[in-house]
Design brief:
- The protein is of the alpha+beta class and about 230 residues long.
- It has three domains: about 1-80 and about 140-155, Roll (Chitinase A, domain 3); about 85-135, no CATH class; about 155-230, Alpha-Beta Plaits (2-Layer Sandwich).
- The chain has five helices and twelve strands.
- Helix 4 (about 155-170) runs antiparallel to helix 5 (about 195-210).
């Protein structure tokens, strides 16, 4: 698969040491392995090949993959989430922990906690002490991916709409072309999104790198407010 390709991927991700399913894009797999989440929508993951959005081992494998072929392979920790680092495990007083969380009643072994701007997992709490593990939950784990590229986005307009959705989580944009110049009409809601001012610069770079657009124009439309009659 060429670098820069925008692809839809169905996958199952397993812990290779115990065959435990960690996550999946497929509802049938989630039900089979008893991790189904009724609140989740199971759809293929969308990514850009070679864009650094995935762990290194998966990125490397994608460059040799073909559409509609099934693959099964393992990724060692050094090309996944790294080895576990004992220096990333900290012991603090229970009082410090309790002062750092909004609701102490939610604390439990295995709960995520944020201490000093770092997020970790509570491993142990007893005798006035608490142990926090700041390693990634999958650090030290050999992973196994079963995956298939189910679609490659080829249409230019669909590429842009896909990139817009990936970068904003929204899909209500209107787009138009004048040669290689692109105009994107934003919803009124976007004008009040505090993150938009920063996100649009990364979006422009992505559109130029992967779609080949030239000038990018963002157009805001503010409709008049209608006063309802009593």
């Amino acid at each position: 698969m060429e670098a820069g390709s925008i692809v839809h991927i169905d996958y199952d991700l397993f812990n290779a040491s115990n065959d435990k399913l960690i996550e999946t894009t497929k509802e049938d797999s989630a039900k089979e392995h008893e991790i189904h989440d009724e609140t989740k929508t199971y759809i293929p993951m969308i990514t850009i090949v070679g864009d650094g959005r995935l762990i290194p081992g998966f990125e490397e494998h994608l460059t040799e993959a073909k559409v509609n072929e099934e693959y099964k392979f393992e990724i060692e920790p050094e090309k996944a989430y790294g080895e576990r680092d004992a220096n990333q495990i900290d012991t603090i007083s229970q009082n410090v922990l309790l002062r750092s969380v909004r609701d102490p009643n939610t604390l439990g072994i295995g709960s995520p906690v944020e201490i000093g701007g770092k997020t970790g997992i509570l491993q142990f709490m007893s005798a006035g002490r608490a142990r926090i593990d700041y390693n990634h939950p999958l650090a030290g784990v050999t992973l196994r991916y079963n995956y298939e590229i189910v679609k490659v986005v080829e249409d230019r307009e669909e590429k842009i709409q896909t990139l817009l959705n990936m970068n904003t989580g929204k899909d209500d944009f209107e787009i138009s072309f004048d040669g290689d110049d692109l105009t994107i009409t934003l919803s009124e809601e976007m004008a009040y999104d505090q993150n938009w001012a920063y996100a649009k610069f990364a979006l422009v770079r992505t559109l130029r790198d992967h779609v080949g657009v030239s000038k990018v124009i963002f157009r805001e439309v503010h409709e008049p407010r209608q006063i309802e009659e009593e």
